[in-house]
Write a structure and sequence with these properties.
Layout (H helix, E strand, L loop, with lengths): L2 E8 L3 H13 L4 E5 L3 H12 L9 E4 L8 E6 L15 H17 L5 E4 L4 H12 L6 E3 L3 H15 L6 E2 L2 E2 L7 E2 L5 E2 L2 E2 H7 L5 H13 L1 H9 L4 H15 L4 E10 L5 E12 L2 E5 L6 H21 L1
Parallel strand pairs: 1-2, 1-4, 2-3, 4-5, 5-6
Antiparallel strand pairs: 7-10, 8-9, 10-11, 12-13, 13-14
Helix pairs in contact: 1-9, 3-4, 4-10, 5-7
């Protein structure tokens, strides 16, 4: 029996511990299990975060083992090797695929019925590995995908156009990485086409600005890693938002990594596409009318990922 108020995080590095901290602040769970190969590290993170509970919400946070996740509603997996400066997300694939297979094996032993949220990179590839190894329904295995990339896009657009980022409807799809693409054909601000809104804000040639913003989004992780060694705050909040959509059954639309089964002419791979998220996980993959160039870019991104998946088999 799944306890909708219980979650587990596997991997207590920068990303895992930041997700735990974000979940504590949101107050959507009453129990949170932290699991790490270094049990003392998990204990330390649980202690440190728990000391902030008097300023937040009542919650039981503790270091546990795989048997403790049996009734968890959401299992968030962040474990894996870190991305090093100059290393692409796809460079990580083989070593992190081995780690993911090991983790999924332990989860299956625990006979868990919850939803798997994959955050480890390269997330699209590892989501596919987790799905294949677990044998779970595609609805139950989702990746954080390009949710963070989309947030970066909205932030940079809001800074350029001096408008509330919550009024911006734009998103990134494809691989969470170098071949991702911004879907400009659907982008709008409160119903106003993005380029038209740019003109209203004094940007006469906003197309050039859009290209620069896209490149900044695509290269954000590299820029941050070069400066501080890792990214974790943004993805921590993004993962917590996905978990919240599951727990609250809010039917939120977000570009998570999900298995495609013919959508956009693509099959047998996980890719970041706008999807409705609720209590059952990935409830519905949305087929949106992109323009011809965007469709072609999406297929190119898919082809690159399929080549990487072959190396994991």
């Amino acid at each position: 029996m799944v306890d909708i108020q219980k979650a587990a995080i596997i991997g207590c590095g920068f990303v895992g511990s930041t997700i735990a901290y974000s979940l504590m602040q949101k107050g959507i769970f009453s129990e949170l299990v932290l699991i790490d190969a270094d049990h003392k590290k998990a204990e330390g993170e649980a202690m440190d975060i728990s000391h902030g509970l008097p300023f937040s919400h009542a919650m039981d946070i503790y270091a546990g083992e795989y048997e403790d996740i049996k009734d968890a509603a959401v299992i968030i997996i962040t474990a894996g090797a870190n991305q090093k400066p100059g290393e692409t997300r796809l460079d990580l694939v083989q070593k992190n695929a081995r780690i993911m297979k090991s983790i999924i094996g332990e989860i299956k032993k625990a006979d868990c019925e919850g939803i798997l949220l994959i955050v480890s990179n390269p997330v699209d590839v590892l989501t596919h590995v987790a799905l294949k190894e677990s044998g779970y329904s595609p609805k139950r295995v989702i990746g954080s995908g390009t949710v963070l990339d989309t947030a970066r896009l909205k932030y940079l657009l809001s800074e350029k156009l001096k408008v509330d980022s919550r009024n911006i409807h734009a998103f990134i799809i494809g691989e969470h990485g170098d071949s991702e693409l911004a879907v400009w054909s659907c982008a709008n601000i409160y119903g106003i086409d993005i380029q038209q809104f740019g003109k209203l804000r004094g940007c006469e040639n906003f197309q050039n600005e859009m290209d620069e913003i896209y490149r900044a989004v695509r290269d954000s992780a590299y820029e941050i890693i070069e400066r501080k060694g890792a990214t974790y705050y943004g993805i921590g909040m993004a993962a917590a938002r996905i978990a919240e959509a599951i727990v609250r059954d809010s039917h939120t639309v977000a570009p998570v990594s999900v298995l495609l089964n013919g959508e956009y002419g693509l099959s047998d791979l996980c890719l970041s596409i706008p999807t409705i998220i609720g209590r059952d996980g990935a409830e519905q993959v949305l087929e949106i009318e992109f323009n011809a160039e965007e469709n072609e870019q999406l297929k190119k991104s898919a082809q690159e990922l399929k080549q990487v998946l072959t190396s994991c088999e």
